[in-house]
Amino acid sequence: MESIDKQVSLYMHGSEFGDLQIKEMMTRELRQKLKEAKAEGRPLRVYCGYDVTAPDIHLGHTITMRKLRQFQEFGHDVTFLIGTFTTLIGDPSDRDEARSITLQEELKKNAQTYAEQAFKILDPEKTSVRYNYDWLSKLSFADIISMASCFTVQQFLTRDRLRNRYEKNDPIWLRELLYPLAQGYDAVCLQADVQIGATEQLFNLMAGRRLQEAFGQKPQVCITFPVLVGTDGVQRMSKSIGNYIGVAEPPEQIYGKVMSIADSLIMDYFELLTDVPDEELAKFKKQLADENFNPMTLKKRLAREIIVQLYSRKEADEAEKHFEKVVQKKEVPDEIQEFKISADIPISRLLVDAALAVSRSEANRLIQQGAVSIDGVKVTDANQLVEKDIIIKVGKRRFVKVINTDT
Length: 407
What we know:
The chain contains 18 helices and twelve strands. It is of the alpha/beta class. The strands form three sheets. A five-stranded parallel sheet has the order 3-2-1-4-5, with helices on both faces. Strands 6-12-11-8-9 form a five-stranded mixed sheet, with no helix packed on it. Strands 7-10 form a two-stranded antiparallel ribbon. Helix 10 packs across helix 11, helix 12 (about 250-260) crosses helix 16 and helix 17 crosses helix 18 (about 360-370). The longest helix has 21 residues, at about 20-40. It is globular, with a radius of gyration of 24 Å. The termini are far apart.
């Protein structure tokens, strides 16, 4: 019994529902499922689904992955579900406007990178990777009508974002209303005991419970967690917005991005992304409340915790040294990427060719903002020619050593 109580406390820690009654109900049901599974001598079937709108997994995704890892550590079966079909539909729960339909070829390409990145958090030997295109693509129109009969339109319009769009007379596409059915059917096909997701996904997770009952299954327990605010300090972390920290980014880049977050996000990041004990977190809160305390101390600890989790302690040490040398002391790093040219070239074009900017327009914008320097001197002319060996710096952390092979 002690083990079950320990598990319940661990799995529900940090969860957020927005409705205390639902949280209490899910806590009771989780405890009951653990008791039943123990009596039957079987593990729970636990999963979380991830749509593949971009090829990179970021720290926001790891909140639920870390919870899946906890279930793995107690011997439960974990499925990492990649939404190769649901991504084609688009989920309206996390945005105010309708999502454009993702091209299937791009989606397949993105899905290929997901499992490898997920294994930075999950145990690959204890993880089942599944793709919901395998079953959702086989449903007939009769199947969809049958599942749709379990819900009313009014239930869907209780969701804030859909209701807001309805009241503003903005388009709500029928395919968006079908998304919860698709996600709910995932739970049926996986015969899930527990599904994990973001707080804003609660409606979709509860739809899974409803469909499981319709298919004669016991309803899953739903555990939801808050979304992570991105490095801009305003919007949820997102690849499309550009305020993300990718799990596959180099350690020094992750370190630098963590150091750039707003002070107001420090505790959220600690609580959602690390295993720092509650006693220490309480101490951190007191320190941040002291106006004489420098938050950079905690940001460095946070950056180290995240990099150790994704890479190693050695790489966390190296990333910290890189940050202190390049950003704090404003020195040139020991190791710099080299880029060779064989002719004079405008700096704006060079930034694109050296992958320091995605386009000439972005290169021009960086130059106008004063974010580009050559050998320590800020560049003001986007057409300035690069004629000799130089070191280009973009922003605080990106460097490239340009070698002119003609000189």
